[in-house]
Design goal:
By secondary structure, the protein is mainly α. It contains 6 helices and no strands.
Length: 177
């Protein structure tokens, strides 16, 4: 697919689903029955912030903190003091650029792991049956005796290829495994 959708992540795994199958609960509903996100992006952002931890999140939530960490005069392991000169509970804990970058990388990996686990699990559980239902209905509706009906095995094989490609591209090549 990436050959035809330039700029959409090149080797990023893509699986085309019928509208019927896409209505399966493959999107992020939340992490528990009583937790519902307003949007998928909101859910991913929340998981990322939780994985980032309070100290790096505090630094990245304050414009002065981001600017201080981005200062090219600082080396990766140099201590960066709170640029606002605050003391007490509102002060930012001394940080290094290396600690922040490591925290961001680890939070991205943790968040990706949650998203991929959810998508893979629900895709494998829901999509095959729904795809078969959809294409069987299309064939019946069009009364086409010569049409081949998609089987669950074919859909499962396609999903397995997506899983392998995802693990290769984002796992092995990008280090998200």
């Amino acid at each position: 697919m990436y050959r035809y959708a330039k700029g959409r992540g090149d080797e990023m795994p893509v699986i085309l689903l019928s509208k019927h199958a896409h209505r399966a609960p493959i999107h992020l509903p939340g992490t528990s029955a009583d937790e519902k996100f307003d949007t998928q992006a909101g859910g991913v952002a929340r998981w990322f912030k939780e994985a980032l931890g309070p100290v790096p999140l505090a630094w990245l939530s304050v414009p002065e903190g981001v600017k201080a960490l981005a200062d090219d005069k600082k080396r990766d392991h140099d201590d960066v003091q709170d640029p606002r000169n605050l003391e007490g509970p509102d002060a930012l804990v001394v940080m290094t650029r290396k600690k922040i970058s490591t925290a961001v990388w680890n939070a991205a990996r943790t968040t990706y792991g949650k998203v991929w686990s959810h998508m893979r699990t629900t895709m494998q559980a829901e999509v095959p049956r729904r795809e078969v239902e959809y294409y069987a209905a299309v064939v019946a509706e069009r009364n086409n005796q010569d049409a081949a009906v998609v089987t669950e095995k074919q859909v499962n094989d396609a999903i397995e290829r997506v899983v392998v490609l995802n693990n290769t591209v984002l796992g092995t090549k990008a280090g998200f495994a």
